[in-house]
Specification:
Length: 324
């Protein structure tokens, strides 16, 4: 099969399309003909050897896929050849085929196309885990989402809105913010032109927000602390700025705030049933028209380096997806 391979640690230029042996199918697994693979910021970290769990070289990056079941192990009864599925992987999605445990495959919601499904599991799963499980967002709460035009950020705007939050979206560029508005943001702050903390103060009558979702870190984390109301929760999901924020226990005490981490990948490996229930609920939201996963760009598999460069350019809003 054809696969995008990382043969040395580096940037997107370290990737090349090649012919590789398809992954072997073990008991309990299914083989999927990949129609679409989501592109994630963490792919950049993994090909640079800077992710928390790096596979040995050579490997194919790619944390999520959607496609059609091609083969099932003899002990698998839940899936049949031809089923439309999506799912998360530790790596290996940038390929024509992927093998995943049958219990971790998710039935594609009927109205979702392959491209949207390929970019769905990581962004929407993380957003759901962050707000429903970790922050326990309540209807009517005010939510500030940094990186709101990014893959996880845009999904977070949509999920927080469905859970009843009043969402303030922060991103650079009016056009990208317009996409966040279309996905449920009530208020928009252009971080390239506006003072985020001042705008949040104005929007909340000086009180601050109940929940912040931070996929950026660094300066965004510092601003997030200034934007939190008393008893506010700051959910940290990533460090796209390259800088990990720090919070002194004294500040947490003085401001009566909670710092909350959310790592969706750990749930993927630990609790398949809980993950399935989350995707079932997200699937119902899709079918009810409450969320509409957005594809910013479809890029051919062979042009994976261009897809990663496009993500780094911060010019689009939402997910970039590699298509077969
Ligand atoms: N915890 C988890 O389970 C989990 C799951 C998925 C992703 N993540 C993490 O969440 C973060 C975002 O991932 P993603 O796939 O959504 O990425 P993405 O689509 O590239 O979005 C990242 C956003 O961060 C903002 N940003 C600010 N400074 C940046 C910088 N120096 N370089 C790049 N972006 C910068 C950009 O928004 P502006 O251009 O508007 O500033 C960009 O839209 C990453 O750190 C990723 O590892 C964590």
């Amino acid at each position: 099969m054809r696969a995008v391979q990382c043969t040395r640690w580096g940037g997107p230029e370290a990737l090349a399309l090649g012919e590789v042996t398809p992954p072997a199918l073990q008991g309990g697994e299914i083989r999927v003909a990949v129609a679409a693979a989501g592109v994630n910021f963490a792919d950049l970290l993994m090909i640079a050897g800077k992710y928390q769990e790096n596979p040995p070289l050579p490997f194919s990056p790619g944390f999520e896929i959607a496609g059609t079941v091609e083969e099932v192990a003899p002990d698998v009864t839940a899936w049949r050849r031809g089923d439309r599925v999506m799912g998360m992987l530790p790596f290996g999605g940038y390929a024509e085929q992927a093998v995943l445990p049958a219990e971790r495959a998710i039935a594609m919601p009927p109205s979702l196309g392959f491209a949207a499904a390929g970019g769905f599991p990581v962004a929407y799963g993380t957003a759901y885990g962050a707000f429903a499980w970790r922050a326990r967002l309540r209807p009517g709460e005010r939510v500030l989402v940094f990186g709101a035009a990014g893959g996880v950020g845009l999904a977070s705007v949509a999920v927080a809105r469905v859970l009843g939050g009043e969402v303030i979206a922060v991103a650079s560029g009016r056009e990208r913010l317009a996409v966040a508005e279309a996905h449920g943001a009530a208020h928009l702050i252009d971080s390239g032109r506006e003072d985020v903390a001042a705008q949040v103060r104005a929007l909340t009558g000086g009180r601050g927000v109940d929940v912040v979702l931070d996929p950026v870190g660094g300066p965004a984390f510092e601003t997030a602390l200034r934007c939190l109301a008393s008893e506010g929760r700051l959910v940290v999901i990533g460090f796209a700025s390259g800088q990990v924020g720090t919070l002194s226990a004294g500040v947490a005490l003085g401001k009566n705030i909670d710092l909350i981490g959310c790592y969706w990948g750990a749930y993927r490996d630990a609790d398949a049933d809980r993950i399935r229930r989350a995707y079932d609920e997200l699937g119902r939201w899709i079918e009810a028209g409450k969320i509409a996963p957005h594809v910013a760009a479809r890029v051919p598999l062979a042009e994976a380096p261009r897809a990663l460069a496009l993500m780094s350019s911060r010019t689009l809003a939402g997910k970039i997806v590699l298509v077969a």
